[in-house]
Amino acid sequence: MKPSPFLYRAPTTLKRALDDLAECAEEGGKVLAGGQSLIPMLNYRLVRPPVLVDIGNVAELSERTFNDPSFSLGATTTTGWIARSPAVRDAWPLLSAAASWVGHVQIRSRGTIGGSVVHADPSAEIAAAMVLADARITLRSVRGGRVENAGDFFTGYLSTAIEEDEILTRLDFEVPNAGGRWGFEEFAPRHGDFAEAGAALTLPAEGAQERGRAVAFGVADRPFRLPSLETLLTASTERVARGAFDEAVGNDFDAIGTVTSEKRAMGGHMVARALGAAGVVVD
Ligand SMILES: Cc1cc2nc3c(=O)[nH]c(=O)nc-3n(C[C@H](O)[C@H](O)[C@H](O)COP(=O)(O)OP(=O)(O)OC[C@H]3O[C@@H](n4cnc5c(N)ncnc54)[C@H](O)[C@@H]3O)c2cc1C
């Protein structure tokens, strides 16, 4: 199929992009970033926006800064750039691993982190990493700007707290448990397919007093933290008893609500595998 007709805007400044979006948002106008999710939806006529505001030429949206352990990534940073960047690999190897699981090279070379977060597929690896880091998500509109935490941003299946006239401009975060062990695992029928279930987790660096962090994705309608499991994860954790693991992960899956028994089994398995990758045995 072909998309229904639309007007195409290609602003080169953020101000102009916000003005363009404000003009058409009420009638269903949309932001176009990498187009890797939006273009297929247009082609299937699942959405029929009268106007597309292409943000690909807005230089302000591709700015990136690293102040180890803090990151600031502009919305149009591509997943491919993240997967290849030596700076990202050094500062937060888990994020490089997450990005390398996204689709195929063609998709990663166009798809953006802003698009991935706003599209909010429950299996999206970048969104899961942002929840793990509890990234601060900057949203701008002609009405002003605001910041949402990633933990509150995802509200359901393909749903977020973004308003129709807002543009996600930037993601800011600190590397969780910097310098500590980590694991990222997902199950997909083939590498590059959307994950059926996945998990990412970090353990504190040696000597650090904080707790570990863990997130599951592709399991419920959105990525979510596993706070009960996190209480078991310290810098010195090398083993988690199977009973304690099942109870903690079971509690965390219950808390998010909509988890089928199949996803529960697959998700639990992915969490255990991610722990294994981080050097923690579940037995
Ligand atoms: C075959 C295939 C396999 C894929 N596999 C995976 C996978 O394994 N894992 C995965 O995570 N993704 C996967 N994807 C999706 C891909 O990662 C997309 O790139 C991503 O979901 C959307 O990013 P985009 O930049 O292409 O956004 P677009 O498609 O341009 O936009 C997506 C949505 O976000 C909105 N939007 C985009 N940017 C902004 C912004 N800055 N502010 C406000 N709204 C915005 C758009 O209006 C639209 O509603 C796959 C896609 C395909 C086609």
TrEMBL record:
Keyword presence, Cell inner membrane: no
InterPro entries given in the database record: CO_DH_flav_C, CO_DH_flav_C_dom_sf, Diverse_Substr_Oxidored, FAD-bd_PCMH, FAD-bd_PCMH-like_sf, FAD-bd_PCMH_sub1, FAD-bd_PCMH_sub2, Mopterin_DH_FAD-bd
Keywords: FAD, Flavoprotein, Oxidoreductase
Gene Ontology molecular functions: FAD binding; oxidoreductase activity
Tree of life domain: Bacteria
Domain FAD-binding PCMH-type span(s) in chain numbering: 1-178
Oxidoreductase as UniProt keyword: yes
PANTHER family: XANTHINE DEHYDROGENASE SUBUNIT C-RELATED
Listed name of the protein: Xanthine dehydrogenase FAD binding subunit
Organism: Saccharopolyspora spinosa
